[in-house]
Each structure stands twice: as C-alpha cells, then as structure tokens.
Amino acid sequence: MVKNRKLISNSLSMVINRLTQSITAFVLTASIARTLGAEALGQYLLAFTYYFIFVNIASQGLKTLFTREIAREPEKTSLYLISGTWLQLIFSCFSYVVLVIIVFLLPYTSETSTACYIMGLTIIPFSLSNITEAIFQAKEKMHLIALATVPVYVMRLFIMLWSMQRNYGVDYLAAILVISESIILAIEWILITKFVKTKWQIDKAFVWKTLKNARTFFAIEGLAVVNARIQILILSLLGSEFVIGVYGGIMQLFQPFLIVANSIGIAMFPRLSKAVNEGRDKQRNIIEKCIEILLIIGLPLCVGLLFIGKNLLILIYNPSFAQGSLALSIIAISLIFLPFNQSLSFLLVANGFEIVNLRQVAINTILGSLLGLILVSQYNLLGAAIMALLMSFIAFSQYIYFTYTLVFPLNLWRIIRNPLIISVLMTIVFIVLETINLNLLLTMAIATCCYILFVSLLSIHALGKIPIAWEKIVKK
After folding, report:
1. Which is nearest to 318 in space by CA: 77, 35, 24?
2. Number of structural domains, the chain?
3. pLDDT in tens, 258-302
4. pLDDT band at 53 (very low <50, low <70, confident <90, very high)
5. What range defines the domain where residue 226 resides?
6. CA-CA distance, 346 to 341, in Å (whole number)?
7. Looking at the domain assignment, is residue 250 inside a domain?
8. Is residue 299 assigned to a domain?
9. Neighbours of 285 (CB within 10 A)
C-alpha cells in the first residue's frame, strides 16, 4: 500500500511538472502566433528545436544511466552528484559550441541564427539540473522536481507574455528561457543538499567508467531526439519559417499527452528496474497497466482531434493555421502507437536491453530522414505529417517485436479492451454533437464531461463497485 501510494505521488508530481510545462508552452506558442505571427513562431520553434536536440544529446544519456544506477546503489549518490555534474558541464559546453557551428553554417536569416545562439545557452543550466533530477527520481522524491520547476514555469510564462506585449521579439524570449532554467538549477541544488551529503571531489575513475557505461545511452538519446525533431529540421531546409510555425502549432496540441506519457514512464522506471529481480509477472503487470492508462488517454484524444481538429487550430492560433487540419488528422492516428512506444522503451532499458532502443532509434532516424526528404520535398507540410505517422508505426513494430522476443509477451486484449470501449463511446458522442452543430467550446465541454463520466464508470466497474451499488439500490 505504501509503495503504491508513493508511485501515485511520484506519478502525480511528474504529471503536474510536465503538464505545467506543457500548458505554459502551449499558451506561449499560441501567444507568439497571435501576437508576433506564424513566421516568428517558426523562428522560436526552430531555435527551440536546436536547443532541444543538443541538450538531450548532452544530458539525457547521463540522466537515464544515473537514475538506474542510483536506484540500485543509493550509497553512491554524492559521487554521482559531484563527479556527474562536472562531467555534465563539459558535455553541455561542448554541445553548445557544436550547436553554434552548425547554425552558423546553415542558410538561416540573421534573426533566426541569433535566436538559436541565445536559446542554445539554456543547454548548460538545463543539463546540470538533469543530474539533480536523476537523483530525485532514483530516490523517488519527484515532488521536489515539481517544487523547483512549476513556480518558475508559471512566472516565466507571465514575463514572456508581458515581453511580447511590449513588442520584444524572439531574442528576448530566448534570453528569458536561459535565465529561468538557471534559477531552477539553483533551487534544485538547494533542495538536494538537504538530504545528500556532498563530498567535493572528482573521482576520475568514476568519470571514465561512466563514459564507458553511458555510451549506449548517449547514442540512444542523441538519435531519439534527432528522430523526434527531424521533421522540423527538414522543413527548415526545404520549407520556410511560416510552415515550421504551422507544423509546430500542430505538434503543440500533442504535447500534453506526450508529457503525461513521459511523466508516467519516468515515475514507473525506478519501480520497473527494481521489479527485474521480482519476476516477469510483476513487470508485466506494471507495463500493461501503464500502456492501458496511456491508451485510455490517447485513443479518445485521437477521436476528438479527427472530429474538431480544424476548428481547434483556428480557435487557438488564427485562421491561417486551418491549412494544417489534414496534417493534424494524420498525426493524430499516431496516438494509437505512442503509448506502446513510450512504455516499452522504459521496459527494455530496465531489463538492460538499451542496445535495442539504440537500434530502434537508429533505424527510425535513417528511414525517417530518407522518407522525410522525399515526402517533405513533394508534399511540404502534409509530407511531414505522413512522415511522423510512419515513424511512429515503425517504432511500434520494433518495440513489440523485441519485447516479445527478449522479455515477455503482452496480453494485448486486456490492454486495449477498456480504451476501445471508451473510444467507441466518445465517437458516438462526437457524432451526436456534430449532428446538433453546437459551437466548439460547448462541444469540447460536453465531450470532456462525457469522457470523465465514461472513465469513472469503467473504473468503478473494474473495482467491482457497480454490482454492489446496484444491489443496494434494488434492496431499497
């Protein structure tokens, strides 16, 4: 019971953290589109893409490795904190230099390049905070991450909105991002010193051992992040900042789901790693429940976007984004595969099969790049959407195959039964609402209430409470 309570607490903390990040990013994206225009949004998203790629290459490999190892050997926490931070600092500085060189060599406008240079500085504080967050995760103290980040995210959003109202451009937004991430790093260090006794010395043997052990993780994260952002990179070379803005606005609609999925996976990962020694049934139960929860969120979201996607783009951004409605519908279909991809990647790493993840992202990146060059050059925005869907399906096929052959088979019917029931019910709801022809906000409100009702009833039924309640009613 205590373990379950801690898992729920950690999951909620990560969800709150990621949802706040997602909501603030969503509001910021919509505000840039409305205030500064789609082209400025394209500049911001391109700068953020380069930052996102290089910060993940520089830091996520160490974060994943440290989370797993500290969960197994908590007595070495101080060693990982000090020596790991020093190692991370070197990686992040080197990563920023590479970013500057690449952006300088590519044919971007001076405004776009400057935004990339400024936002790229965020690599350093964000990478260093990943070390402290790895310790919080390994020790299952995820609430401290939310405590350090959520207030800063909210304050950052208000400052950015104020800056845009004062007619400050993308460069100023990038600078605010750098300062806010530095503040988060300082807060996390203050929190971590409360329960970790730091020994201020660098263990060179540990550094070399970490470099050796993290090679696969660095390769996985590097390829994975390029794989995730390859569409925007190709659009930046074959399209324009305006098209990047429309595509980025579309992808922003999926961020709440992706952040919830990642948060649940991160919260589940330490428990999944410990369950390796407790038997396959324990792991199977954890991973199947995780996928089911994500499908219960993802499949109804897919249904909703297929019905009201175009109107949603117009409402959130502006009428020029309506041209992305077909692309949005195509990408929405990938919500069928993403819950499996997100969950099974954690499962394979927990069992020591990170090389499989490396193989998967390598194949996806190579195929995605080749397909992207062909599709985007021919169909522009629509080609990027088709590319995103194909990459999700290719990843899904590989994860399923390697999970079945290396770990254990999944009970797919048990996983998809409840999500399918809710999705069918939501499809009926949207068909009825479309027939009635209500305005978008009222349609969304009714659909949301119906979704909550269906999930609640299904949860009560799963707990066996409906028969009990019905029996009491009949007796009365």
Report:
1. 35
2. 1
3. 877 877 777 777 778 777 777 788 888 889 988 999 999 999 999
4. confident
5. 1-236
6. 9
7. no
8. no
9. 12
